[in-house]
Amino acid sequence: MPFSTASKKNGKTYILHSRQQTLRGGQTVTLYYFASEAGAGAMEALPEGYQVTENERTGLPLLKKAK
Questions:
Q1: How many angstroms from the chain centroid is the CA of residue 37?
Q2: Cα torsion for 28, 33, 38, 39, to the nearest 10°?
Q3: What is the pLDDT averaged over residues 17-33?
Q4: SS3 label, residue 10
């Protein structure tokens, strides 16, 4: 079952995804994003060292590094 979170503002459920992106210099980075439906790249758990926050204005979830 993929990791999901519900928005406090609008009540919608969002599912965490990740994908690998190669930058122009050849470096590969992992991108994390939330989508309303599960698709390719859906993650089972929250990555270690990250926490979920929510944009107060839009209600969209954000992934931030934990302090």
A1: 12
A2: -30
A3: 96
A4: coil
